Amino acid sequence: MADAITEATAKLVLDEVTERTQKRAKKAAADKAKAAAPAQPKENAPKPKEKIEEPTIDPDAMFKQGFLEDVYKERPVKPVVTRFPPEPNGFLHIGHSKAIAVNFGFAKYHGGQCYLRYDDTNPEAEEEKYFVAIEEMVRWLGFSPVKITYSSDNFQKLYDMAEKLIELGKAYVCHCNDDEIKAQRGGADRGGPRFRCAHAEQSIEHNLAEFRGMRDGKYKPREAFLRMLQDINDGNPQVRVYEPMQREYGRLSLTGTVLSKRKILKLVSEGIVRDWDDPRLFTLIAIKRRGVPPGAILEFINELGVTTAPSVIQMKRFDQSIRRYLERTVPRLMLVLDPLPVVIEGAEELELDVPFSPKVPEMGSHKVKFTPTVYIDRSDFREVDSKEYFRLAPEKSVGLYQVPYPIKAVSFSKDEVTGKVTEVRAVFDKEGKKPKTYIQWVASGSREVEVRIHNSLFKSEKPDDAEGGFLNDLSPESEVIYPNALVESAGYDEVRRRAPWPEAAGESELGKGGPESVRFQAMRIAYFAADSDSTDEKVVLNRIVSLKEDAGKS
Known about the structure:
The chain is an alpha/beta fold. The protein has helices at about 1-10, 15-35, 60-65, 65-75, 95-110, 130-140, 155-165, 180-185, 205-215, 260-270, 285-290, 295-305, 315-325, 490-495, and strands spanning about 80-85, 115-120, 145-150, 170-175, 225-230, 250-255, 310-315, 330-335, 335, 340-345, 350-355, 365-370, 375, 395-400, 405-415, 420-430, 440, 440-445, 445-455, 480-485, 520, 525-530, 540-545.
């Protein structure tokens, strides 16, 4: 399975050097044809192509237009004060990131402030770890609450106010059912006569005793209510209080996963995933562990915008957004998933200066040691050559990234028991044609790492609709582990030393996180981040997202 996935990855993803080589060849052919063609009159000459520039991303776009712009215009005040009121009975998921980005971001954009308000009204389901995790995720996404408050802060105050209303004769304890209360308010269409129930005539002392009985658990839920003694003849008997400005916007969810606390708990308790932070889940702590940068999540939400309609987004759109963000913000290193040694006869050690990103010179460069024995990925060698294959094969040449000459395979050895190739012998091909493909490699003595390739946990877009339930939709290929992968040592050490990545504009304001902030692109494979299982002796890497969209992903 691992070989198949590696081979598929190599087929899907061409490395950048090969792409540049092909472009140069096409350009040379075009220049040759142009020189041979007769000159065209000036008016018939093709117009020069305009340079396509990267679109500028405005991090505040969703506050300047559409729904959120209209909301502010309803009541254009400063400062704007908002709140984010989660229930501390579970870990936040990707949908909550939208609420955080909107509630905190809206206040920040308009020069205001946002409260983190824990709606802790269900003590049986609340745990300290949820309070801590929620605040950590808010700060990881780059926001700081002006103050952290709790609904329970006001419990005693609200209770005391309720007793005060009873003592003033303005509230009473009622035992009417829903139908009786509806009839007292004029019936279903509110057009009938209004009247008070007999409970409204109870004494203050009786109401106080009843209310304290409610407090002490004398009644089951909905068996007793505290009701205001309103003017039944008033056309609008509702309490006249300040109307806060509350506007609802659509929730965010993704296809191909589950976000329900109950379902995730099932996955955790049955050992299908490691814990609530397993990188295959879409809790925020799992997305963080996987290595997705906080800035990428905010950019994704900004791209989607805000409307009143719920958003069910395809997983591939989420991946595309994360991929674009990483493309311009993280360095590149060479890594091989399934190492195959290649002995290059007559080669000498070299020290190469390799840029961290050809597209972002500001990232700088690092030293890479070239040794007479290098390791390539097993998927980049075939025992039998074919016309459409452009990597290493007997008597066929391939380029090694940044190495002066291509190499040509001259022989190989195999394990007699397994039949697997154990070593390839090669020579520098100094006289041959320029290779069509360049592949990544690592030198002898490179760092051994464990690589975890995470795919979708489920086989379909709608696991909840699977026959027999979501557990019947689990994918057997949701995680593939390469225990003996190799990554270039000096480059990885430098990336880890300079973490957090990315160093994009505004990223310094965001949470620095932990080992997952060590992010890089493994050339021709995927984007990776260090996992929390990493130690000084052993590095574990998680795949954040592939380099290109998987053909079967919806």
